[in-house]
């Protein structure tokens, strides 16, 4: 993609961004404001691994921000050359400026501005074999959401559904924690947890919720067939409106004195048990 045309409607054009430039300010806003990311349909992705993933999806990269750090390794120089060969528009900034945009000191010298992935409800249940969807209800921590996406993909889920008032699944922190899964795994957002549950029921999925108060242990539960696993937000758990619609609730037995597992850890235990039975 060249540097002209539609790109100028997204961000100002700069050959080299200064500390107070409109480009840097704009990227910082995109990094911290989920409403801005949604309105523009853009996300930020930092690092060489995500750059490789995005390069495998022609047309998804709107802009690449590069700093001198990317030239310090052979892998980084290879990514820079791949970006140039692909015709991706690039802008140069200093290492400290890129660190201030990425909010991490240990950045790898490349930050990408990507189009926000768009999936439909049917994408969650597409493909061969029974659909398996992980549903995150009101998860507030972006790192947890990114981990859930990574776990869902690894455990052979067909999609991730984010329901209710939670964090933006495409925040920079979530994208970083997902390690590329959010660029591959179908993800759909639904404003209502109960509406999400009813939609999945219409697609023939059995609804199972993870709850530390459930009577049935996850190893004794039916986790076969088309399945939607519901996990709740940090502290709050699953809302009552969802509990009333579940086909089953399961718990993970833990050592006495341990209140519960982290939401991503709990999802991993149950999903990999389900995958092993397949």
Q: Secondary structure elements and their pairing?
A:
Blueprint: H1 7-10, H2 22-32, H3 34-40, E1 42-46, H4 48-55, E2 61-66, H5 74-85, E3 90-92, H6 95-102, E4 110-115, E5 132-137, H7 142-154, E6 159-163, H8 172-178, E7 187-190, H9 193-202, E8 206-210, E9 216-217, E10 227-232, H10 240-243, E11 248-251, H11 263-277
Parallel strand pairs: 2-3, 5-6, 5-10, 6-7, 8-10, 8-11, 9-11
Antiparallel strand pairs: 1-4, 2-4
Tell me about this structure.
This protein is an alpha/beta fold and 278 residues long. The chain has 2 domains: 7-115, 60s Ribosomal Protein L30, Chain: A; 121-277, 3-Layer(aba) Sandwich (Alpha/beta knot). Helices cover 36% and strands 19% of the residues. The protein contains 11 helices and 11 strands.
Features:
278 residues; alpha/beta; 60s Ribosomal Protein L30, Chain: A; Alpha/beta knot; 2 domains; 7-stranded parallel β-sheet; 4-stranded mixed β-sheet; disordered N terminus
The portion of residues assigned to helices is: 25-40%
Q: Helix count?
A: 11
Count of separate structural domains: 2
For the record, give the distance between the C-alpha atoms at the N and C termini, rounded to a whole number.
Answer: 43 Å
CATH fold assignment of the largest domain:
Alpha/beta knot
Mean pLDDT: 89
| pLDDT < 50 runs, ≥5 residues | 1-20
- As laid out across the biggest beta sheet, the strand order is 7-6-5-10-8-11-9
Main beta-sheet annotation: 7 strands, parallel
SSE succession: HHHEHEHEHEEHEHEHEEEHEH
Shape assignment: elongated
**CATH architectural arrangement of the largest domain:** 3-Layer(aba) Sandwich
């Amino acid at each position: 993609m060249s540097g002209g045309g539609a790109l100028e409607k997204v961000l100002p054009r700069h050959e080299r961004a200064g500390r107070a430039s409109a480009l840097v300010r704009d990227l910082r806003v995109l990094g911290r404001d989920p409403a801005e990311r949604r309105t523009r349909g853009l996300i930020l992705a930092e690092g060489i691994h995500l750059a490789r993933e995005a390069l495998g999806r022609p047309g998804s990269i709107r802009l690449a921000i590069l700093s001198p750090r990317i030239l310090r390794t052979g892998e980084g120089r290879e990514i820079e050359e791949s970006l140039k060969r692909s015709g991706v528009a690039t802008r140069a900034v200093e290492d400290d400026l890129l660190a201030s945009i990425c909010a991490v000191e240990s950045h790898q010298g490349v930050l990408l501005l990507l189009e926000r992935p768009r999936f439909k409800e049917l994408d969650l249940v597409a493909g061969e074999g029974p659909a398996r969807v992980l549903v995150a209800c009101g998860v507030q921590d972006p790192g947890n959401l990114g981990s859930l996406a990574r776990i869902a993909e690894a455990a052979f889920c067909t999609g991730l559904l984010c329901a209710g008032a939670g964090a933006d699944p495409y925040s920079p922190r979530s994208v970083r924690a997902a390690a590329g899964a959010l660029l591959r795994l179908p993800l759909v957002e639904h404003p209502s947890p109960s509406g999400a549950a009813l939609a999945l029921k219409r697609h023939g999925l059995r609804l199972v919720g993870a709850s530390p108060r459930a009577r049935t242990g996850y190893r004794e539960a039916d986790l076969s067939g088309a399945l939607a696993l519901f996990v709740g937000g940090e502290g709050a758990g699953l809302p009552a409106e969802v509990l009333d619609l579940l086909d089953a609730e399961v718990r993970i037995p833990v050592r006495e004195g341990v209140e519960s597992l982290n939401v991503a850890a709990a999802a991993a235990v149950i999903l990999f048990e389900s995958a092993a039975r397949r």
